[in-house]
Design brief:
The chain is α/β, with parallel strands linked by helices. It has a single domain, classed as 3-Layer(aba) Sandwich (Rossmann fold). It has eight helices and twelve strands. The strands form two sheets. Strands 1, 2, 3, 4, 5, 8, 9, 10, 11 and 12 form a ten-stranded mixed β-sheet that branches. Strands 6-7 form a two-stranded antiparallel sheet. Strand 9 and strand 10 form a beta hairpin. It starts with 7 loop residues before the first strand and ends with a strand.
Amino acid sequence: MTTSSLAIGIIGAGNIGAAFAGALARRGIAATIANSRGPESLADLVEGLGPTITPGTREEAAGKDIVLVAVNWSKLPAALKGLDLSGRIVIDANNPIEAPLFKPVDLGRRLSSEVFAELVPGARVVKAFNHLVSALVAGDPAAEGGKRVLFYSGEDAAAKAEVGALIERLGFAGIDLGSLAVGGRLAQFPGGPLPTLNLVKFG
């Protein structure tokens, strides 16, 4: 299957989830977005995004081919509980911080993507969409005559290729950072050197 034929789900309707939905909507790409409060609570959000974004349940979003997860760190276990994401491409757009104070979570020496992967056993995890502020994810990826950069990393080459193709389809310049052990550490916030950098690729 090509990226254009893959169904997309979003679990989490906060800043990043909504920004990702907005980026999809801008390109006319369909997706189902879900949160913990149910589809009815998303009526105003999806109305503002346009007809390609529809509200759904967690189960409906989790049933898509590509599923982006962007949830407050402490709420991740509850958000993912009972969902079977085995074999699906799951985009980890989470950071180990707690809003609204943005207090870092102590993970010891573990990577956040390593912890996340344990919550989605069997999923093909790709780290992406976590290192830019939400306004830049939702905004125009064209900048200064080039394309705004989005990093991604993961262990599954085919899953990374699909996410990379989606990033390019959204108008961004995707850069593969390699494995989660390497790329996940570089793009992790807080701690990594790449988050919040607004980089542009030319050519």
